Amino acid sequence: MSGLFSAAFLRQVGWQADVYERSPVELVGRGAGITTHPELLQALEASGAGTRDLGIEVPKRFAIDRDGRITCERPLRQILTSWDRLQRLLRETIDPAHYHLGWTFERVEQNGSGVRVHFNGGRVEEADILIGGDGIRSSVRGEVAPELQPAYAGYYIWRGAPNEADLSPRTLKEIFPYFVFYLPPRQEVITYPIAGFNNDLRSGHRRYNFIWYRVADADQLRAMNVDKNGVQHEFSVPPPLIRRDLIEQMYADAREIMPEVMLDCVMTMRQPFITPIYDFTAPRIVFGRVAMVGDAGANARPHMGFGVAKAGCDAQALARALGSHDDIDSALKAYNAERQPIGNTIVMHSRKLGTHLGVNLKTEEDRRMHALLQTDEAMLDWIAVPNFLDAYK
Ligand SMILES: Cc1cc2nc3c(=O)[nH]c(=O)nc-3n(C[C@H](O)[C@H](O)[C@H](O)COP(=O)(O)OP(=O)(O)OC[C@H]3O[C@@H](n4cnc5c(N)ncnc54)[C@H](O)[C@@H]3O)c2cc1C
Question: What is the model's pTM?
């Protein structure tokens, strides 16, 4: 996403930009839900991607208790979209001649006035700059700043997106149209509607995004990262390889604690999967002629649902700097000065929100935030709300 945003904004200031994606096939069918923010909508419009058929608007958010009763609610209109939809909109902004599937970045050489970029298979490209938009495990960052490594947050999420058509009438009536929280001790369940397959927004064809945060220390995560073939994975197990015993245990735990409407979501998820939560922030995001954007530059825990918004704003700021400076190095310096502090702020804010789960509460401020976030009301006011960055201006 940050690569496509970068190319779109760079073209607007007269640059030629090519995107190299390691996947040999189009990135379609990724089901995750994405909360939108004003910054994301602005970046989509400005990039030319637009916001048509973006997603589903919910009128409000509320929290429920174990019996499914609403404990508190807030009117808050929010558009919920999906990774798929955003990727499709952005993908349409780029001329296929400049979008290269199946090219994996391997290394970069710099000579002070440009870059030579090496891809798998021996392909080499020369350019004025290299933009690393290759995600939290960025290989570009691994080349220029190998010491910058994401850290495990001490918790993970079970995720899935059951089909609207599979949910019970009660679930559809009571929670499906809304952004809903269920908050048992040291856990967090968040649900909201998203489009169905192929951005199907018709009633009966949509899905319900389901996220269940749970605490696990590094040893427990390591044990969970053994797949169904007994292979140990370093960061996470691909969804089809998740062990059956972990899924069965998850179902058993859900039966113990979930309200009926949430349990319905759990039991109808076709392929529940696990995402361990990592984050990192970097002291700089420009390394000579290499600039990092999106998750590669700073990666927040997903409590605000702001990752794609940040990717769009990074890309926009980079192009703006390149378009308004006479020399590239001053432009990159200006980009770093503008976006590194914001990336850092976003990561710090996400750590604040993560204190809800009570992991690694090291400072007085951590404990204060943890205490503050123990009520349903506070969680509705802090999690995935728009304009949270205003408090830092
Ligand atoms: C559970 C969860 C919930 C989230 N919810 C939200 C939300 O509600 N709202 C929101 O805005 N964000 C959300 N995010 C974050 C969002 O998904 C990311 O911030 C966003 O995808 C970042 O985009 P990116 O382009 O920087 O990185 P990525 O999406 O990771 O893309 C990186 C790309 O680089 C490619 N690549 C990697 N290595 C190489 C290489 N060596 N050579 C070539 N290509 C390579 C990859 O194949 C990939 O296509 C969530 C994240 C998680 C984990």
Answer: 0.96
